[in-house]
Amino acid sequence: MRKTSLCFLLFFFICVLYAQVEPVRPGPVTGGTGSDSLSAAEEFRLGVHAFNRFSYNEAILSFERSLSFRPAEPLILDWLGRAYYFSGFEEIALRQWRSALQIYGRNTGVGMLLNARIETVANRRFLMPVADDNVRYVQSGRFPGRFEDTVYYRQPVSVLANNDGSVWLVAYGSNEIVRIDVNGRIRDRERGPLNGFDRPYDMVRGNDGRLYLSEYRGSRISVLDSNGKWLFYIGSRGLGAGQFVGPQHLTIDEDGYLYAVDYGNRRVSKFDPDGDFILSFGLRSSVFSGMLSPTGIAAGNGRIYVADSAAKSIYMFDPNGNYLGRLAAENLLGPESLRFLSDGTLLVPDGNRILQIDPDSAIVRELGLAGGDRVRITGADMDKNGNIVAANFNAGEAAIMTRFDDLASGFFVQIRKVDTQRFPQVLVELTVEDRLRRPILGLDDSNFLITEGGIPVENQTYLVPGFRHSGADISLLVERSDITARYLNDLSAASRDINRALQEMDNSKIVSVISASAQPRRELSSERQTGVPLSQLENAVRSNPDRYTQRWRFDLGLRLAATDLLTVTASPKRSVVYIGSGSLGELAFEQYSLSEMAAYLANNAIVFNAIIIGAEQASESVKYLCRETGGSAMNLYRPRGIGELIKSTADNPSGLYSFTYNSRLPTDFGRAWLPVEAEVYLMERSGRDSTGFFPPME
Predict the structure, then answer these.
(1) Could you read off the pLDDT of 223-248 as tens digits, one per residue?
(2) Rounded to an integer, what distance in angstroms lies between the CA atom of residue 266 and that of residue 292?
(3) Three-state SS at 176
(4) 495-532 as b/e, with b when 16 or more CB fall inside 10 Å?
(5) Strand order in the sheet with 313-317
(6) Long-range contacts, stretch 414-418, CB < 8 angstroms, 24+ apart
(7) How far is it between the farthest Cα atoms of the chain?
(8) Which phi and psi (to 5°) does residue 498 adopt?
(9) Where are the beta strands (DSSP E) in 333-434?
(10) Backbone angles phi, psi at 175, to 5 degrees
């Protein structure tokens, strides 16, 4: 939707900004003729190469040696801080960066970047998109339904977020669904079968990835594939079982059952995933007065929540339709759609307000107000970048609402790796996150500018981003305690379930199986893309009886399992899957603390998941690691199995982006320190990082 003139102005603004910001320049560590200078430069060069191989311990040793030859050299301090940061030692990293900042000065270009990095790392507290009691959402942009005489869509009524940062908008007025990326460009447009959609109203995603779309005037539900292609119908017009008169909002429960608000019949109908009718509920009874104007619906916590805009209430039912009471939320004006957020609270549009309601306490908090003269928010969802996208039916557009603090802080950009094996072609890998360590998804080439010393590079080429990568790398960490020694059959069962899940995944592999014993060891290592043979995997997970001990070491095992996922060919989507009792033992954090291990995983985009065997429950330490990295803990014998935990790794959000370009800088036979900078822009937000590299020795 952006015009060429706007793109030109953005590029001009970026160029002006670069002209005002001092690029990274070669420090004394890369020059000089004395023996100390030469030794410092050589150790620094070795450290940079080790860092780009993800060998952070080796890099730390080289940078420390380099610093011993050139104390108080800010460039070495900066890189030493980077190595400590990705090793999980954030406090030590901050000390190095603060020392470098004192030398650089806060008013220099590199000093301003370093200060921003220090503030971001020091103030980070959360990982996933969760509404904070102290933060309000403000409108940061919009996806207009028309521009001048061009109509893109009409009367959006609901929103569904996608894993790549884009959203589906259900356009009631133009009888279609449109997928819009983070830059506001329409990427897909679907209008249904030959006879088309008939006033589509709401859309949800099933557990198998299929989409369900209600059609208000068509009095039916369309089942679509994951890309929005029509498959078949559920229901028809009428008053009978499984029939509708104006279906509106939809929801899916944990077991995959579909619930549809049948507005005309003032009831809710429940179907299995294939569309077979099960039951209806919500009519007047001896214990329930009946619904007047049912609107939004959401399933969670074993309950079904149904909003009634006329009664200004939210009612609660169990999955069998039994009335449980009214959610005592006060001061509702006319609630519309209901969506569960990742923290278990409800996102509720209410007129021009976006509310957050805690279903346990019934506390209502206003997140923000949608602006404009004509406002009626009929549907809203939180996208994968933590923004609230709200369908403004009356204004014919979608409003993007962002946390105020996020707008003020911008993006946290980190150049993770510079590969010069094909020099003068250079490969740059970088991550884009917000201040809470949440990856920013959906960016494309238009959002990035790569420069060398402030000058745009030649032949900047955007490669496949991490969020589009299929499959995942998994490292299994098996507890070898006296507890798990009694559950060898459970370990075998876990290996079989894991293998079954891997067989259903594309481009995925088990990188290693690690025994968390007194001396952790690698039981299995594989680069196979389709997993390993079941017998080999089962033997590795069970291991030998002499591995099991009361003095098993969780921290050392976890460190080894995570390190195996950091290779040059590693997938951007990766997970350590711990298999154990959930109780981590007395020596769990003897060498590395819980916070250091969480930082090591999170800073390297590794998700921690847990499969609990036996009769124990996941400890608070296990829950903390899951929470800080975006993982989850599941019991091995849960009714739905553990397959979804293994498969979830492939759906992990990844903010990794890669580019190649041709360097035009002189190399001095491999001794020159070549600067590279990356700038990221998205709507009202931006971020920047700068670093450097050594070209190959000639």
Answers:
(1) 999 999 999 999 999 999 999 999 99
(2) 7
(3) strand
(4) bebbbebbeebeebbbbbbbbbbbebeebbebeeeebb
(5) 294-300, 303-308, 313-317, 323-327
(6) 414/689, 415/676, 415/678, 415/689, 415/690, 415/691, 416/656, 417/52, 417/54, 418/52, 418/676, 418/691, 418/693
(7) 93
(8) -65, -45
(9) 339-340, 346-350, 353-357, 364-369, 377-382, 388-392, 397-403, 412-419, 425-433
(10) 55, 55
Q: How far is 530 from 278, CA to CA, in rounded Å? A: 39
**Parallel/antiparallel/unpaired status of strands 346-350 and 339-340:** antiparallel
Across 77-199, the runs of DSSP E, i.e. the strands, are 137-144, 146-147, 150-151, 156-161, 167-171, 176-180, 186-190
The predicted pLDDT at position 14 comes to 38
Nearest-CA neighbor of 62 among 82, 39, 44? 44
pLDDT at 527: 60
What distance lies between CA 658 and its chain's CA centroid? Answer: 17
Residues 6+ apart with CB under 8 A from 574: 472, 473, 474, 475, 511, 565, 605, 606, 607, 649, 652
Is the backbone peptide bond immediately before 424 cis, with ω within 30 degrees of 0? yes
pLDDT at 9: 37
**Tokens 């019934």 sit on residue:** 362
Total count of residues recorded for the chain: 698
**C-alpha to C-alpha distances, 509 to 58, 107, 464, 590, nearest whole angstrom:** 27, 47, 20, 31
What backbone torsions phi and psi does residue 275 show, to the nearest 5 degrees? 100, 5
What does the CA dihedral 322, 328, 332, 335 come to, rounded to 10 degrees? -30
Strand partners, 328: none
Instruction: Indicate the burial class of 118 (C-beta count within 10 angstroms; 0-12, 13-18, 19 or more).
Output: middle
Q: Are 421 and 192 in contact (CB under 8 A)?
A: no
Can you say how many angstroms the Cα of residue 595 is from the centroid of all Cα atoms in its chain? 20
Task: Read off the amino acid at residue 455.
Answer: I
- Give 541: exposed, middle or buried? Use CB within 10 Å, 0-12, 13-18, 19+: buried
Q: Is 243 helix (H, G, I), strand (E, B) or coil?
A: coil
Which segments in the chain show pLDDT lower than 70? 1-33, 125-134, 372-373, 527-531
Cα angle: 10, vertex 15, 17; to 5 degrees? 95
**Rounded Cα gap, residues 655 and 404, in angstroms:** 21
Contact yes or no for 166/187 (Cβ under 8 A): yes
Three-state SS letters, 418-443? EECCCCCEEEEEEEEECCCCCECCCC
Non-local CB neighbours of 64 within 8 Å, separated by 6+ positions: 80
In single-letter form, the type of residue at position 345 comes to T
- Judge contact between 139 and 353, C-beta under 8 A: no
Distance CA 698, CA 687 (A): 35
Residue 146: which region, alpha, beta or left (left: phi > 0; alpha: psi -120 to 50)? beta
Query: What distance in Å separates the CA atoms of residue 680 and residue 662, rounded to the nearest whole number?
Result: 19
> What token pair was written down for 188?
């897909």
Task: Return d(Cα 136, Cα 134) in angstroms, integer.
Answer: 7
Q: 505: which DSSP letter?
A: S
Q: Is residue 256 left, alpha or beta, with left meaning phi > 0 and alpha meaning psi from -120 to 50?
A: left
CA distance 415 to 676: 9
Tell me if 138 sits within 8 A of 368, measured CB to CB: yes
- Tokens found for residue 266: 């003032």
CB of 98 within 8 A of CB of 85? no
Per the structure block, which two tokens stand in for 682?
Answer: 């998205």
Cα(65)–Cα(30) distance, rounded to whole angstroms?
15
Structure confidence at residue 314 (pLDDT): 95
Q: State the Cα–Cα distance between residues 694 and 125, nearest whole angstrom.
A: 35
